[in-house]
C-alpha cells in the first residue's frame, strides 16, 4: 500500500501540492486526472523519488520513503521519453538492463521477452531515432519493466498512441498489476482512465479533491464530476447547451 500524508510542494510562490493526502492499495491501477499544470507530473516525480517535497510523508508498506531508500522497486515513465536515439531498441534495452542491475545472465532473455511482448521485434535492430512516438513510448515502458518493479508510475502513457498500440500497452499494464503490483498513472484521456483504472482521483488546487471507483460510476458521471470540480456545479448543463 502507498500512503501519502500532507504532501506539499511549491516552486517559489506557486503552490503546486498543498497538504495532499492519498492512498492506493497494492494491486490497484490508479489514474490521476486534472487540468494542465495542476501538478500531476510533480506528484509522480515526488513518488518516484526524483523530486523532493517541501513537506509530507510517503509510506510504502508502512515505511516512510521520503529521505529513505525504499526496498520496493519503483519505475517511472515520463510523458516524453528521452531515449538514446543512436542505439537500436534492443541495444537500448540491454543498456538499460545493465543500469538497473538486472543479472547479466538474465538480460538477453528479459529484453527479448519485452521486445516480443511490445511487438517491437521487426524494429529491434533499427536505431531509436527512426522510431515513431508510439514505438518510443513502448520502448520506454518496456525499459521500466526490466527490473520487475513493484510500483509503476506512468506519466500520460497513452497520449498520442494509436488504437492498436494503446491496446497493447493497456493489456500489459493490466497484466503487470495482476502480479500484485501497483500502477499510478496520469492522463487526460478520461475514457482510458475509466476503462483501465480501478480508481480515479481528481487533482485540484494541490489536493486529491474527489475519488471514484470506476466500477461504481459511469464515464459520463465521472466526466460531469470533473467538469463541476473545475468549472462549478452548473457547468454540465452549460456545456450541453
Ligand atoms: N522545475 C520546475 N520549476 C518551476 N516550476 C515548475 C517546475 N516543474 C513544474 N513546475 C510548475 O508546477 C506546476 C505543475 O506542473 P506539472 O508539470 O506537475 O503539471 P501537470 O499537471 O503534469 O501538467 P500537464 O497536464 O500540462 O502535463 C506548473 O505550474 C508548472 O509550471
Mind explaining what this structure looks like?
It is built from eight helices and ten strands. The protein folds into two domains: 164 residues, Rossmann fold; 70 residues, no CATH class. Helix 2 packs across helix 3. The strands form two sheets. It has a six-stranded mixed sheet, sandwiched between helices. 37% of the residues lie in helices and 25% in strands. The longest helix is centred in the last third of the chain and has 16 residues. The chain is globular. With 241 residues, the chain is of the alpha/beta class. Bound molecules: adenosine-5'-triphosphate (ATP). The site of adenosine-5'-triphosphate has 11 residues, from strand 2 and helix 1. This is ABC transporter ATP-binding protein.
What is the count of helical runs? 8
Q: What's the rounded overall pLDDT mean?
A: 89
Oligomer: single chain
Order of helices and strands: EEEHEEEHHHEHEHEEHH
Shape category: globular
Distance N to C terminus: 43 Å
Gyration radius from CA atoms, angstroms: 18 Å
Largest sheet: 6 strands, mixed
What are the low-pLDDT stretches, counting only 5+ consecutive residues below 50?
A: none
CATH architecture assignment of the largest domain: 3-Layer(aba) Sandwich
> What proportion of the residues form beta strands (DSSP E)?
25-35%
Determine the structural class based on helices, strands and strand pairing.
alpha/beta
Query: What name is given to the CATH topology of the largest domain?
Result: Rossmann fold
Q: What would CATH call the class of the largest domain?
A: Alpha Beta
Small molecules held by this entry: adenosine-5'-triphosphate
Q: How many β-strands, per DSSP?
A: 10
**What is the percent of helical residues?**
25-40%
Amino acid at each position: 500500500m502507498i500512503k501519502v500524508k500532507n504532501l506539499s510542494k511549491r516552486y517559489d510562490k506557486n503552490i503546486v501540492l498543498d497538504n495532499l493526502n492519498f492512498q492506493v492499495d497494492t494491486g490497484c491501477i490508479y489514474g490521476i486526472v486534472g487540468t494542465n499544470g495542476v501538478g500531476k507530473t510533480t506528484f509522480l516525480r515526488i513518488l518516484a523519488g526524483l523530486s523532493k517535497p517541501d513537506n509530507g510523508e510517503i509510506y510504502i508498506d508502512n515505511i516512510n520513503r521520503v529521505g529513505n531508500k525504499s526496498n520496493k522497486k519503483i519505475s517511472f515513465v515520463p510523458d516524453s521519453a528521452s531515449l538514446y536515439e543512436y542505439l537500436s531498441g534492443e541495444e537500448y534495452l540491454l543498456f538499460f538492463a545493465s543500469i538497473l542491475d538486472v543479472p547479466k545472465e538474465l538480460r538477453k532473455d528479459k529484453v527479448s521477452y519485452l521486445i516480443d511482448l511490445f511487438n517491437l521485434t521487426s524494429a529491434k535492430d533499427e536505431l531509436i531515432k527512426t522510431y515513431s512516438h508510439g514505438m518510443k513510448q513502448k520502448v520506454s515502458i518496456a525499459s521500466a519493466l526490466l527490473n520487475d518493479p513493484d510500483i509503476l508510475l506512468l506519466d500520460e502513457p497513452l497520449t498520442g498512441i494509436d488504437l492498436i498500440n494503446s491496446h497493447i500497452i493497456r493489456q500489459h499494464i493490466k497484466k503487470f498489476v495482476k502480479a500484485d503490483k501497483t500502477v499510478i498513472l496520469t492522463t487526460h484521456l478520461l475514457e482510458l482512465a475509466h476503462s483501465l483504472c480501478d480508481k480515479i482521483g481528481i487533482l485540484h488546487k494541490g489536493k486529491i479533491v474527489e475519488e471514484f471507483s470506476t466500477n461504481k460510476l459511469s464515464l459520463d458521471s465521472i466526466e460531469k464530476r470533473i467538469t463541476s470540480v473545475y468549472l462549478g456545479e452548473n457547468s454540465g448543463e452549460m456545456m450541453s447547451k
